[in-house]
Structures are given as C-alpha cells and as structure tokens.
Amino acid sequence: MKTFFNYNWTIREEWYSWCEDVPLEELLKVRTGGVGGILHTLFHIIDVEWSWIRIMQGEPDFQESFEEYQSLEKVKELDAIFKKQVEEFVLGWKSEMEDHVVQDFQQDGSLETLTFGEIMRHTIAHEIHHIGQLSVWSRAIGKKPVSANLIGKGLSIS
Question: For the residues of 40-92, what is the DSSP string, one character each?
C-alpha cells in the first residue's frame, strides 16, 4: 500500500511539472468528466486524500473551496502542507490497522461503516482514476501526458 501512495505522490509531482508549461486558462478550463478542469482535479485529489486520512484520525474533514486555490502554486502549496500529515500516517501504517472501523456520513445523511483498509485502497484508486482523466485531457490540448508506468520508478517502500 505504501508503494502505491508513493507512486501517486511521484506521478502527482510529475503532473505539477507538466502543468508549468500550460497556460492558466487551460488549467482552469472546465472539461467533460471529472470534477472540472485540470487544476481543479489536482486540488480534488489532494483534498480527498487528506480528508480520508483526517477521518481515520478522528479529525474534521477539509471544507475549503477550490475558488481559493486557482493557481498551480496555490495547489502545490496546499499539497505540501497536507502531504506532511498524510505521509506520516501512511508511513506509520501497520497491518493491524487494516480492520479498524470508522463511520462516515454520506451525502444523503446516512452513516456508512468502513474499514481503514477500504479507505486506504479507495484513496489510492481515486487518484489513479483522476490521473487517467488528466491524461485524456492532456491529449485533448495536444500535449503528451505524464507516463502512468510504475515500473522502473524505484518506488518500493518497506
């Protein structure tokens, strides 16, 4: 699991670099699918990752709006702040945490019981899903996407 978080963080940094050569208008443009545009999707990825970690830690969910983070630098700064807490939790992961239970309120008001293991896997898959959307959008603007290849990146973490 740690390897996949490391993978997501590495690919995310590569997407930030990719964004540096793209005009802000293109990064903010609302696109078909996903949560909006390229920059909004990157914001959403870090928001969801940090929010789930906070829920597992018994802390309140992140409630800020993308409206406050409409530049690449602001998204990267937010990511750097959030990643410290996320990375500490991920690197401290132990197999006995797998079946810890947390209850989460759904949008319809119902209460769902989840395990930490489910949440961790969902968080990993969530980012990979959105990275796929970024790849499609990058091709739509005529730019080669970041490679999603895990092999050869030296990302294994014990």
Answer: HHHHHHHHHHHHHHHHHTTPPPP---GGG--SHHHHHHHHHHHHHHHHHHHHT
